[in-house]
């Protein structure tokens, strides 16, 4: 069982990297992609926790913006974690999150939804990458909404008047940096319409020219029709097809292993990295 997209307390998940590894082992996962938002800070703890029966595919989910300001997430896997250019890109994305969060709390407060930046920080685990899920948790704590899902549905989705973009690389630039760092790039949930604006099929040629390796097809936020469209695009363009849970612990309904990657597709994807960087005990 291969699940290539999960999160920990190093970004916006609720399980520590150690707990995530344990959950993967108990769930029967054999290859686990650790892909915290714009961060590799959970790698070391996950490596220390690994036990026989599990292979780690370390990576990060890179926040991107198109020229039309469409938010895109790019999964980078199997890259060199010491690559300076890669780490600079991740750091710059993390640094842009603070002014973005300040502005979002200001917009909410101006509409009578009382929330402060300090309350968002209080809802964020130590060492985490600041993000909207922490704002959602703060809104839950204040009683404005009942859950993270409700917060995103009503207040924090990409189409909301409270949504603020942040400085981020273009998808093409993110792909190029991931590939230069020796890794592989898979675009995450590209047709997830309930999240707001999405990419169109016309976007893929420029992504392929930049070095895109695969498409995350099987994902909770894709309808069956969207999955079939993406599967066709992947076949037509020679891209690897992946599936993943996008597991966040109790922060989302997503269950570990609810969508998986075919072993043959994983074998192809792994072979595209410039070195074998999976980690086993």
Structure description:
The protein is α/β, with parallel strands linked by helices and 281 residues long. The chain has 2 domains: 2-95 and 167-271, Alpha-Beta Barrel (TIM Barrel), CATH 3.20.20; 98-156, DNA polymerase, domain 1 (Orthogonal Bundle), CATH 1.10.150.650. It contains 11 helices and 7 strands. It has a 7-stranded mixed sheet. The longest helix is centred in the middle third of the chain and has 14 residues, at 97-110. The model has no long low-confidence stretch (mean pLDDT 94).
CATH architecture of the largest domain: Alpha-Beta Barrel
Output the radius of gyration: 18 Å
CATH class of the largest domain, anyone? Alpha Beta
Q: Assign a percent range to the helix content.
A: 25-40%
**Main β-sheet description:** 7 strands, mixed
The SSE order reads: EHEHEEHHHHHHEHEHEH
Unreliable sequence segments? none
Question: Which band does the percent of strand residues land in?
Answer: 5-15%
Shape: globular
Q: What order do the strands of the largest sheet run in, or round the barrel if closed?
A: 1-2-3-4-5-6-7
Number of helices: 11
Supply the CATH superfamily name of the largest domain.
Metal-dependent hydrolases
Structural class: alpha/beta
Mean pLDDT: 94
For the record, give the distance between the C-alpha atoms at the N and C termini, rounded to a whole number. 17 Å
CATH topology of the largest domain: TIM Barrel
Total number of distinct structural domains: 2
Number of strands: 7
């Amino acid at each position: 069982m291969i699940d290539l997209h999960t999160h920990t307390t190093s970004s916006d998940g609720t399980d520590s990297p150690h707990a995530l590894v344990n959950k993967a082992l108990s769930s029967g996962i054999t290859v686990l992609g650790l892909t915290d938002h714009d961060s590799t800070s959970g790698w070391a703890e996950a490596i220390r926790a690994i036990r026989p029966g599990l292979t780690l595919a370390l990576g990060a989910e890179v926040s991107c913006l198109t020229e039309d300001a469409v938010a895109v997430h790019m999964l980078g896997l199997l890259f060199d974690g010491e690559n300076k250019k890669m780490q600079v890109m991740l750091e710059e994305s993390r640094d842009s999150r603070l002014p973005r969060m300040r502005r979002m709390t200001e917009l909410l407060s101006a509409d009578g939804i009382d929330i402060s930046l300090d309350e968002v920080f209080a809802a964020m685990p130590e060492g985490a990458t600041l993000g909207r899920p922490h704002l959602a948790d703060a809104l839950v704590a204040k009683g404005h909404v009942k859950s993270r899902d409700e917060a995103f549905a009503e207040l924090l989705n990409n189409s909301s008047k409270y949504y603020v973009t942040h400085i981020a690389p273009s998808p093409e630039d993110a792909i190029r940096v991931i590939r230069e760092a020796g890794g592989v790039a898979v675009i995450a949930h590209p047709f997830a319409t309930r999240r707001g604006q999405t990419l169109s099929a016309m976007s893929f040629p420029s992504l392929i020219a930049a070095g895109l390796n695969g498409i995350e097809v099987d994902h909770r936020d894709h309808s069956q029709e969207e999955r079939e469209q993406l599967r066709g695009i992947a076949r037509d363009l020679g891209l690897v097809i992946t599936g993943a849970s996008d597991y966040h612990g109790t922060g989302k309904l997503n269950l570990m292993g609810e969508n998986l990657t075919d072993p043959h597709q994983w074998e192809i994807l792994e072979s595209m990295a410039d070195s074998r960087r999976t980690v086993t005990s």
